[in-house]
Each structure stands twice: as structure tokens, then as C-alpha cells.
Amino acid sequence: MRKLAYLLLGALTLALADSHALAQSADTPAPQPYTRIANPDTNVVQLQIALRKFVPIQNTGPTIWLASVMHVGELAYYQALQHFLDAQTVVLYEGINPDAHPHHVHDPLPAAPPAGTNGDYSMQSALARSLGLVFQLDAIDYDRTNFLNSDLSVLQIQNIMAEGRPLVANGGTNAPFDVLLQIMDGSSFLGSIFKIGLQFIADSPQLQAVAKLTLIEAVGRLKGDLSDVQGLPPDWKKLIQVLIQARNQNLMTDLSAELKKIPPSGSIAVFYGTGHMDDLEKRVTSNLHYHTTEDIWLPAFSVDLQKSGITPAEAQWMQKLVQGQMDQMQRR
User: Fold this and answer.
1) Domains in the chain: how many in total?
2) Which domain holds residue 30?
3) I need a labelling partner for 150 at 20 to 30 A (CA). Which of 89, 121, 140, 323 fits?
4) What is the pTM of this model?
5) pLDDT per residue over 219-263, tens digit each?
């Protein structure tokens, strides 16, 4: 029974993790991972996220930081991120609804509320609470003069997914993107199931620890570019390509423009989820002719196995379970 609960938790956390990909393109050298699993103590398992520095190959131009982020973490993690971001000349940040923030690189298309939106609920915020963590949007102060939103709007993504077809009356496309939105805002049946599962985790300290350990193992072990994953239905593969590649292309346009505005001694931080970084690094190195010089690793969150009542045998079993799931997805 206990292992069945672990399996359910594994499926839940794998479904909700914003992480690296499941397969790697064969013709492009793979960047180094932006996540890793560390053991700062004998009984502690920790997820660490990288901030990676890039400088021009010709040594003339501003510094670029690919500041990858985990969307749920400990408060101290986001405090360290805030301190780092506040020190940069410009921060280009992720946010699919740019109109929700006061600073923009450019004016987006008017945002239309997607079908089934429940504005009072966020799956990622609920996930953070269930794990005893905090959600990125609740912990980072975006009201900074150097923070610029650089993302597509919901309507822009819906238009790309529709491929020229008219949108339905409520602004949606009847595509996987709308299904994903309804899961994330809890308005669909599957979203409701996730809500129940998250409450189940929140009510049990040991299951909470197991869920955090599963998330650490899943995010820490996934590598590569998410848009290269094999075996997905065409609609879902297109959705992933839009969510990663189309948004990254939009970001690169803004990044190129901002590089021309700030002095060579300045710096630009690209503040996006870890799943974007593999593709972004390839674009920064090949299109802008930058190369990496250093990494700063920040601990997102940890699990103390001993305090959580997880035995070494159970931890090893969970690690093998997650690794087996990763291997199956990569084979697909």
C-alpha cells in the first residue's frame, strides 16, 4: 500500500514539474544541465539550480546570465535569486500574461481569458503549499525598474496553435493548450483530481517529504530539450514546441534589442524556467556568439531523510523508480 502511494506521488510530481527534457537532439552538442542533485549532508537530498554566465567571444559586449529557476522552492532560494536579479542591469522575465505586470519590452496583443479559467486558483501555487514550499510568483518582487516582461501572451500562443484557423468564441482553440490551462487552474476534471492529490500530500508530513524527494529526483535527472521528446501525439508535440521554442525565439528578439541599449559593462539576466535553458543556451552561443564562463548553483529545496522518516532503502527504491520512468520516456 505504501509503495502504491509512492507510485501515485511519483506520477503527480512528474506531471507537474517544469523541468528539462526527455530526449536530446543528436546533431547539436548538449549544454551542461541546469539542475543537479546534491547531498550537502549524509541524510539530506537537495535540488540545485544553475545561474550560468555568458560573455562575448570577442570580449566586447554586456554579460548575459541564463538565470534558470524552479517554480516552487524554499523562501531562502527566492531571496537569493532576488538579490542576484536586483544587481543586474536588465532582467528579461517569463510570464505568459504580460499585461499582468507594469513593465514590458513591447506591447503584447490584448490578452483574452482562455476557456475554463479559474482566476482564483493556481496549480503551481497549490503544489508549493502542499510541499511546504513557496511559489515563485508569490516570492519574487517583479515591481522593479530593471524587470522587463519578455514573453508571449495567452492570445499569441492560441493564435500560433490555431495556425490561422479562427479562434472559438471564448478565445480558445480546443487544442491541448486549453486543456493544459484548465488543468493548471483546476477547472477541468483532471485538474480537480490533482487538487485532491495535493491536499492528500499536504495532510501527511511523510508523503510531503516523499513528494519532494520524487520531484528532486525527477527534475534533477531530466536532461536535454523538451521539444525534442519522441513519441508524443502531434498536437502535444506542437504545444511543447510553441511553449519552448516560440517563446524562446520571442525572448531572443528582445534580448538582441536590449544588448544594443546597455553599456558593455552592463548585464542582462534571462529569468526563465529550467525547461527553456537548453534551447536558450544553444541560441545564445550560436546566434549571439557568446560562451559560458561560470555557474552559480543555488539550492531550491531539500529533504532530510532521517527527519522525514524515510529509510535509506525507501529512498533508494524511489530513486530507481524515477530513473526507470525517465529511461522509459527516453526510449519512446
Assistant:
1) 1
2) 2-331
3) 121
4) 0.79
5) 887 776 655 655 566 666 667 777 788 889 999 999 999 999 999
